[in-house]
Amino acid sequence: MAVFWEKKEFMVYLDNAATAKPCAECCEAVIKAAEERFGNPGSLHKMGILSEQILSSAKRTILNALGGECAPEGDIIFTSGATESNNTAILGAAEKYSRNGKKIVTTAIEHPSAAKALDILEARGCEVIRLAPKDHEDFVSALAEAVDGNTLMVSCMAVNNETGYAVDTARLYRLVKRANPRTAVHIDAVQGFLKMPLEGDLISVSGHKVHAFKGIGALYVKKGIRVAPLLAGGGQQKNLRSGTEPVELIAGFEAAVKAYRGSAERFTELKKRLLENLSKMSGISLNSDEKCLPNIINFSVSGIRSEILLHALEENEIYVSSGSACSRGKKSGVLAAFGVSDKNADSAVRVSLCADTSESDIDFLCENIENGIKRFRR
Ligand code: PMP
Predict the structure, then answer these.
(1) DSSP character for 285?
(2) Exposed (0-12), middle (13-18) or buried (19+): which is 184, by Cβ within 10 Å?
(3) Which residue ranges have their beta carbon within 6 Å of ligand 1?
(4) Which among 105, 137, 151, 338 has the fewest CB atoms less than 10 Å away?
(5) Whole-structure pTM over 0.85, yes or no?
(6) Of 209, 21, 95, 87, whose CA–CA distance to 77 is shortest?
(7) C-alpha 47 to ligand 1 mean position (Å)
Protein backbone atom coordinates (compact mmCIF):
# COMPACT_ATOMS: atom_id res chain seq x y z
CA MET A 1 0.00 0.00 0.00
CA ALA A 2 1.31 3.41 -0.91
CA VAL A 3 2.19 5.65 1.99
CA PHE A 4 1.59 9.26 1.06
CA TRP A 5 2.49 10.85 4.31
CA GLU A 6 4.58 9.79 7.24
CA LYS A 7 4.61 11.50 10.60
CA LYS A 8 7.85 13.47 10.71
CA GLU A 9 9.76 14.50 13.80
CA PHE A 10 10.82 17.70 12.10
CA MET A 11 8.40 20.07 10.44
CA VAL A 12 8.17 23.82 9.99
CA TYR A 13 4.47 24.50 9.62
CA LEU A 14 3.87 28.06 8.45
CA ASP A 15 0.39 27.72 6.97
CA ASN A 16 -1.68 28.57 10.03
CA ALA A 17 -4.03 30.87 8.11
CA ALA A 18 -5.11 27.81 6.09
CA THR A 19 -5.56 25.74 9.21
CA ALA A 20 -3.84 25.48 12.58
CA LYS A 21 -2.90 22.24 14.31
CA PRO A 22 -5.46 21.31 16.99
CA CYS A 23 -3.93 22.05 20.38
CA ALA A 24 -3.55 19.43 23.11
CA GLU A 25 -6.23 21.13 25.23
CA CYS A 26 -8.71 20.87 22.35
CA CYS A 27 -7.97 17.20 21.68
CA GLU A 28 -8.31 16.38 25.38
CA ALA A 29 -11.62 18.23 25.66
CA VAL A 30 -13.03 16.49 22.57
CA ILE A 31 -12.19 13.05 23.94
CA LYS A 32 -13.49 13.89 27.40
CA ALA A 33 -16.78 15.15 25.97
CA ALA A 34 -17.10 12.05 23.77
CA GLU A 35 -16.52 9.78 26.75
CA GLU A 36 -18.50 11.60 29.39
CA ARG A 37 -20.92 14.03 27.74
CA PHE A 38 -22.21 12.12 24.76
CA GLY A 39 -25.91 12.83 25.40
CA ASN A 40 -28.01 14.79 22.93
CA PRO A 41 -28.19 18.35 24.27
CA GLY A 42 -31.87 18.35 23.32
CA SER A 43 -32.66 15.40 25.61
CA LEU A 44 -34.54 16.19 28.79
CA HIS A 45 -32.63 13.74 30.98
CA LYS A 46 -29.39 14.25 32.87
CA MET A 47 -27.15 13.20 29.99
CA GLY A 48 -28.83 15.82 27.82
CA ILE A 49 -28.41 18.49 30.47
CA LEU A 50 -24.70 17.66 30.85
CA SER A 51 -24.24 18.15 27.10
CA GLU A 52 -26.26 21.34 27.12
CA GLN A 53 -23.90 22.70 29.79
CA ILE A 54 -21.03 22.37 27.31
CA LEU A 55 -22.95 24.49 24.80
CA SER A 56 -23.76 27.27 27.24
CA SER A 57 -20.24 27.39 28.63
CA ALA A 58 -18.70 27.48 25.13
CA LYS A 59 -21.08 30.28 24.11
CA ARG A 60 -20.00 32.39 27.07
CA THR A 61 -16.33 31.77 26.33
CA ILE A 62 -16.67 32.70 22.66
CA LEU A 63 -18.76 35.80 23.40
CA ASN A 64 -16.14 37.03 25.85
CA ALA A 65 -13.34 36.25 23.41
CA LEU A 66 -14.93 38.36 20.65
CA GLY A 67 -14.07 41.51 22.57
CA GLY A 68 -15.32 44.88 21.40
CA GLU A 69 -17.91 47.03 23.12
CA CYS A 70 -21.10 45.39 21.96
CA ALA A 71 -19.93 41.84 21.36
CA PRO A 72 -20.99 40.42 24.73
CA GLU A 73 -24.64 41.40 24.21
CA GLY A 74 -25.72 38.76 21.79
CA ASP A 75 -25.95 35.08 21.05
CA ILE A 76 -23.78 32.45 19.44
CA ILE A 77 -25.00 29.96 16.86
CA PHE A 78 -22.72 26.99 16.34
CA THR A 79 -22.20 26.07 12.69
CA SER A 80 -20.09 23.63 10.68
CA GLY A 81 -17.51 26.37 10.07
CA ALA A 82 -17.19 29.89 8.79
CA THR A 83 -18.41 28.98 5.30
CA GLU A 84 -21.77 28.19 6.88
CA SER A 85 -21.56 31.18 9.24
CA ASN A 86 -20.95 33.54 6.31
CA ASN A 87 -23.74 32.02 4.23
CA THR A 88 -26.18 32.14 7.15
CA ALA A 89 -25.28 35.74 7.96
CA ILE A 90 -25.40 37.05 4.40
CA LEU A 91 -28.31 35.09 2.96
CA GLY A 92 -30.19 34.95 6.26
CA ALA A 93 -29.93 38.66 7.02
CA ALA A 94 -30.74 39.64 3.43
CA GLU A 95 -33.96 37.64 3.73
CA LYS A 96 -34.98 39.26 7.01
CA TYR A 97 -33.99 42.80 6.03
CA SER A 98 -35.00 42.87 2.36
CA ARG A 99 -37.45 45.67 3.17
CA ASN A 100 -34.53 47.91 4.23
CA GLY A 101 -33.22 48.22 0.68
CA LYS A 102 -31.49 46.48 -2.19
CA LYS A 103 -27.94 47.71 -1.84
CA ILE A 104 -25.09 45.76 -0.23
CA VAL A 105 -21.66 47.26 0.38
CA THR A 106 -18.73 44.84 0.50
CA THR A 107 -15.10 44.52 -0.52
CA ALA A 108 -13.25 42.99 -3.46
CA ILE A 109 -11.13 40.94 -1.02
CA GLU A 110 -13.75 38.72 0.60
CA HIS A 111 -13.24 35.00 1.03
CA PRO A 112 -15.28 32.96 -1.51
CA SER A 113 -17.63 31.80 1.28
CA ALA A 114 -18.82 35.40 1.61
CA ALA A 115 -18.18 36.58 -1.96
CA LYS A 116 -20.22 33.77 -3.54
CA ALA A 117 -23.12 34.23 -1.14
CA LEU A 118 -23.11 37.90 -2.19
CA ASP A 119 -23.06 36.84 -5.87
CA ILE A 120 -26.27 34.89 -5.19
CA LEU A 121 -27.92 38.02 -3.79
CA GLU A 122 -26.73 40.01 -6.79
CA ALA A 123 -28.29 37.44 -9.13
CA ARG A 124 -31.52 37.87 -7.13
CA GLY A 125 -31.56 41.59 -7.84
CA CYS A 126 -29.46 43.22 -5.13
CA GLU A 127 -26.97 45.93 -6.05
CA VAL A 128 -23.59 44.79 -4.70
CA ILE A 129 -20.84 47.42 -4.38
CA ARG A 130 -17.35 45.91 -4.03
CA LEU A 131 -14.58 48.27 -2.95
CA ALA A 132 -10.86 47.49 -3.28
CA PRO A 133 -8.33 48.63 -0.64
CA LYS A 134 -5.93 49.84 -3.36
CA ASP A 135 -8.40 52.56 -4.36
CA HIS A 136 -8.85 54.08 -0.91
CA GLU A 137 -6.41 55.55 1.57
CA ASP A 138 -9.06 55.32 4.31
CA PHE A 139 -10.85 52.10 3.41
CA VAL A 140 -13.21 52.09 6.39
CA SER A 141 -14.46 55.60 5.57
CA ALA A 142 -14.91 54.63 1.92
CA LEU A 143 -17.05 51.64 2.88
CA ALA A 144 -19.19 53.76 5.20
CA GLU A 145 -19.52 56.52 2.60
CA ALA A 146 -20.96 53.99 0.15
CA VAL A 147 -23.82 53.32 2.61
CA ASP A 148 -27.09 55.14 1.90
CA GLY A 149 -30.75 54.91 2.89
CA ASN A 150 -31.19 51.91 0.57
CA THR A 151 -28.31 49.84 2.02
CA LEU A 152 -29.51 46.67 3.67
CA MET A 153 -26.12 45.26 4.60
CA VAL A 154 -22.39 45.86 4.83
CA SER A 155 -20.30 42.68 4.70
CA CYS A 156 -16.58 43.11 5.32
CA MET A 157 -13.83 40.79 6.50
CA ALA A 158 -11.91 41.80 9.62
CA VAL A 159 -8.61 40.42 8.37
CA ASN A 160 -7.78 39.30 4.87
CA ASN A 161 -6.65 35.69 4.70
CA GLU A 162 -4.11 36.28 1.91
CA THR A 163 -2.29 39.38 3.15
CA GLY A 164 -3.33 39.89 6.79
CA TYR A 165 -4.83 43.32 5.91
CA ALA A 166 -6.90 44.35 8.94
CA VAL A 167 -9.96 46.57 9.22
CA ASP A 168 -10.95 48.47 12.37
CA THR A 169 -14.36 46.84 12.74
CA ALA A 170 -15.42 49.05 15.68
CA ARG A 171 -14.88 52.18 13.59
CA LEU A 172 -16.59 50.62 10.57
CA TYR A 173 -19.56 49.67 12.74
CA ARG A 174 -19.84 53.18 14.16
CA LEU A 175 -19.60 54.90 10.77
CA VAL A 176 -22.05 52.55 9.05
CA LYS A 177 -24.64 52.98 11.80
CA ARG A 178 -24.20 56.74 11.60
CA ALA A 179 -24.87 56.59 7.85
CA ASN A 180 -27.85 54.26 8.24
CA PRO A 181 -28.80 52.71 11.60
CA ARG A 182 -30.87 50.05 9.84
CA THR A 183 -27.97 48.65 7.80
CA ALA A 184 -26.88 45.24 9.16
CA VAL A 185 -23.11 44.87 9.56
CA HIS A 186 -21.60 41.43 8.92
CA ILE A 187 -17.96 40.77 9.72
CA ASP A 188 -16.09 37.68 8.51
CA ALA A 189 -13.70 37.51 11.44
CA VAL A 190 -12.12 34.13 10.71
CA GLN A 191 -8.58 35.52 10.58
CA GLY A 192 -9.15 38.21 13.20
CA PHE A 193 -10.75 36.18 15.99
CA LEU A 194 -8.56 36.20 19.15
CA LYS A 195 -6.15 38.57 17.44
CA MET A 196 -8.08 41.85 17.64
CA PRO A 197 -11.29 43.27 19.16
CA LEU A 198 -14.30 42.79 16.91
CA GLU A 199 -17.57 44.59 16.36
CA GLY A 200 -20.56 43.77 14.19
CA ASP A 201 -24.21 42.74 14.14
CA LEU A 202 -23.16 39.35 12.77
CA ILE A 203 -19.65 37.97 13.19
CA SER A 204 -18.38 34.73 11.63
CA VAL A 205 -15.60 32.69 13.23
CA SER A 206 -14.07 29.27 12.61
CA GLY A 207 -12.61 26.71 15.01
CA HIS A 208 -9.82 25.29 12.89
CA LYS A 209 -8.03 28.64 12.51
CA VAL A 210 -7.60 28.85 16.29
CA HIS A 211 -6.30 25.33 16.95
CA ALA A 212 -9.70 23.61 17.30
CA PHE A 213 -11.02 20.91 14.96
CA LYS A 214 -12.28 21.45 11.43
CA GLY A 215 -16.05 21.29 11.09
CA ILE A 216 -16.96 23.69 13.88
CA GLY A 217 -17.58 27.40 13.63
CA ALA A 218 -19.82 30.02 15.10
CA LEU A 219 -21.92 33.00 14.15
CA TYR A 220 -22.32 35.81 16.65
CA VAL A 221 -25.74 37.45 16.42
CA LYS A 222 -26.17 40.76 18.19
CA LYS A 223 -29.26 41.16 20.36
CA GLY A 224 -32.20 42.27 18.20
CA ILE A 225 -30.62 41.19 14.90
CA ARG A 226 -32.55 38.64 12.88
CA VAL A 227 -31.36 36.01 10.42
CA ALA A 228 -33.35 33.41 8.51
CA PRO A 229 -31.99 29.87 8.99
CA LEU A 230 -30.32 28.09 6.07
CA LEU A 231 -31.47 24.64 7.17
CA ALA A 232 -34.94 23.26 7.76
CA GLY A 233 -35.12 20.69 10.54
CA GLY A 234 -35.55 20.06 14.23
CA GLY A 235 -35.32 23.71 15.26
CA GLN A 236 -32.22 23.47 17.44
CA GLN A 237 -30.37 26.63 18.49
CA LYS A 238 -33.52 28.75 18.69
CA ASN A 239 -34.51 27.56 15.23
CA LEU A 240 -31.50 29.34 13.70
CA ARG A 241 -29.47 26.21 12.98
CA SER A 242 -31.23 22.88 12.91
CA GLY A 243 -29.24 19.71 13.54
CA THR A 244 -27.95 18.06 16.70
CA GLU A 245 -25.15 20.21 18.05
CA PRO A 246 -21.68 18.59 17.77
CA VAL A 247 -21.02 18.76 21.50
CA GLU A 248 -17.55 17.19 21.26
CA LEU A 249 -16.36 19.68 18.63
CA ILE A 250 -17.88 22.55 20.59
CA ALA A 251 -16.07 21.41 23.76
CA GLY A 252 -12.84 21.36 21.77
CA PHE A 253 -13.54 24.80 20.30
CA GLU A 254 -14.03 26.26 23.78
CA ALA A 255 -10.85 24.61 25.07
CA ALA A 256 -8.85 25.94 22.11
CA VAL A 257 -10.15 29.48 22.66
CA LYS A 258 -9.24 29.33 26.36
CA ALA A 259 -5.79 27.91 25.58
CA TYR A 260 -4.98 30.29 22.69
CA ARG A 261 -1.42 31.53 23.12
CA GLY A 262 -0.81 33.73 20.07
CA SER A 263 0.35 37.26 20.82
CA ALA A 264 0.77 40.30 18.60
CA GLU A 265 4.11 41.14 20.27
CA ARG A 266 5.51 37.70 19.53
CA PHE A 267 4.22 37.71 15.95
CA THR A 268 5.70 41.17 15.43
CA GLU A 269 9.14 39.95 16.58
CA LEU A 270 9.00 36.99 14.23
CA LYS A 271 7.76 39.10 11.32
CA LYS A 272 10.61 41.55 11.88
CA ARG A 273 13.11 38.70 11.75
CA LEU A 274 11.54 37.34 8.56
CA LEU A 275 11.58 40.75 6.88
CA GLU A 276 15.19 41.36 7.92
CA ASN A 277 16.19 38.06 6.37
CA LEU A 278 14.17 38.69 3.22
CA SER A 279 15.66 42.17 2.81
CA LYS A 280 19.06 40.54 2.26
CA MET A 281 17.72 38.70 -0.80
CA SER A 282 17.17 40.23 -4.20
CA GLY A 283 13.84 40.45 -6.02
CA ILE A 284 11.57 40.20 -2.98
CA SER A 285 8.53 42.43 -2.80
CA LEU A 286 6.26 42.61 0.17
CA ASN A 287 2.50 42.30 -0.35
CA SER A 288 1.60 42.80 3.33
CA ASP A 289 2.04 46.36 4.58
CA GLU A 290 1.78 48.08 7.96
CA LYS A 291 -2.04 47.80 7.83
CA CYS A 292 -1.69 44.02 8.12
CA LEU A 293 -1.67 41.86 11.23
CA PRO A 294 1.83 40.53 11.93
CA ASN A 295 0.96 36.81 11.81
CA ILE A 296 0.34 36.78 8.04
CA ILE A 297 3.17 37.82 5.74
CA ASN A 298 2.66 37.73 1.98
CA PHE A 299 5.59 38.40 -0.34
CA SER A 300 6.61 37.72 -3.92
CA VAL A 301 9.88 36.11 -4.97
CA SER A 302 10.41 37.42 -8.48
CA GLY A 303 11.18 34.91 -11.21
CA ILE A 304 9.83 31.88 -9.31
CA ARG A 305 6.22 30.74 -9.55
CA SER A 306 4.58 30.27 -6.14
CA GLU A 307 3.93 26.57 -6.62
CA ILE A 308 7.54 25.87 -7.55
CA LEU A 309 8.84 27.49 -4.39
CA LEU A 310 6.07 25.96 -2.27
CA HIS A 311 7.00 22.43 -3.37
CA ALA A 312 10.73 23.08 -3.06
CA LEU A 313 10.17 24.19 0.55
CA GLU A 314 7.97 21.17 1.13
CA GLU A 315 10.90 18.90 0.19
CA ASN A 316 12.53 20.16 3.37
CA GLU A 317 9.37 19.88 5.49
CA ILE A 318 8.51 23.57 5.32
CA TYR A 319 4.85 24.27 4.70
CA VAL A 320 3.68 27.64 3.37
CA SER A 321 0.88 28.67 1.05
CA SER A 322 0.70 30.22 -2.37
CA GLY A 323 -1.69 33.12 -1.82
CA SER A 324 -4.70 31.49 -0.20
CA ALA A 325 -5.15 27.79 0.49
CA CYS A 326 -8.81 28.17 -0.36
CA SER A 327 -8.11 29.21 -3.93
CA ARG A 328 -6.11 26.02 -4.66
CA GLY A 329 -3.93 27.48 -7.34
CA LYS A 330 -6.78 29.44 -8.88
CA LYS A 331 -6.04 33.12 -9.26
CA SER A 332 -8.26 34.74 -6.65
CA GLY A 333 -8.05 38.35 -7.76
CA VAL A 334 -7.64 39.36 -4.14
CA LEU A 335 -3.99 40.39 -4.48
CA ALA A 336 -4.94 42.56 -7.49
CA ALA A 337 -7.40 44.40 -5.24
CA PHE A 338 -4.40 45.28 -3.07
CA GLY A 339 -2.57 46.63 -6.11
CA VAL A 340 -0.27 43.61 -6.59
CA SER A 341 0.65 43.07 -10.25
CA ASP A 342 -0.30 39.80 -11.97
CA LYS A 343 3.37 38.90 -12.24
CA ASN A 344 3.95 39.38 -8.54
CA ALA A 345 0.71 37.55 -7.70
CA ASP A 346 2.03 34.52 -9.63
CA SER A 347 5.07 34.40 -7.38
CA ALA A 348 3.34 35.24 -4.09
CA VAL A 349 4.00 33.19 -1.00
CA ARG A 350 2.03 33.43 2.22
CA VAL A 351 3.68 32.62 5.52
CA SER A 352 1.33 32.45 8.50
CA LEU A 353 2.57 32.09 12.06
CA CYS A 354 1.26 30.54 15.26
CA ALA A 355 2.34 30.66 18.90
CA ASP A 356 4.64 27.67 18.37
CA THR A 357 6.60 29.32 15.55
CA SER A 358 10.23 29.81 16.57
CA GLU A 359 13.12 32.00 15.41
CA SER A 360 14.83 28.93 14.01
CA ASP A 361 11.71 28.12 11.95
CA ILE A 362 11.96 31.57 10.37
CA ASP A 363 15.70 31.21 9.76
CA PHE A 364 15.30 27.76 8.21
CA LEU A 365 12.55 29.09 5.94
CA CYS A 366 14.75 31.97 4.78
CA GLU A 367 17.74 29.70 4.19
CA ASN A 368 15.54 27.55 1.97
CA ILE A 369 14.07 30.52 0.10
CA GLU A 370 17.63 31.61 -0.69
CA ASN A 371 18.42 28.13 -1.95
CA GLY A 372 15.21 28.20 -4.00
CA ILE A 373 16.25 31.49 -5.59
CA LYS A 374 19.62 30.02 -6.58
CA ARG A 375 17.98 26.90 -7.95
CA PHE A 376 14.97 28.26 -9.81
CA ARG A 377 15.29 31.94 -10.61
CA ARG A 378 15.47 32.70 -14.28
N1 PMP B 1 -13.34 33.36 5.75
C2 PMP B 1 -12.01 33.48 5.77
C3 PMP B 1 -11.40 34.84 5.84
C4 PMP B 1 -11.20 32.34 5.73
O5 PMP B 1 -9.87 32.47 5.76
C6 PMP B 1 -11.82 31.07 5.68
C7 PMP B 1 -10.99 29.80 5.61
N8 PMP B 1 -9.91 29.86 4.73
C9 PMP B 1 -13.22 30.99 5.68
C10 PMP B 1 -13.94 32.16 5.71
C11 PMP B 1 -13.93 29.67 5.64
O12 PMP B 1 -13.83 29.02 6.88
P13 PMP B 1 -14.16 27.48 7.08
O14 PMP B 1 -12.98 26.72 6.59
O15 PMP B 1 -14.36 27.34 8.56
O16 PMP B 1 -15.40 27.19 6.32
Answers:
(1) E
(2) buried
(3) 81-83, 86, 111, 113, 157, 161, 188, 190-191, 206, 217, 326
(4) 137
(5) yes
(6) 87
(7) 33
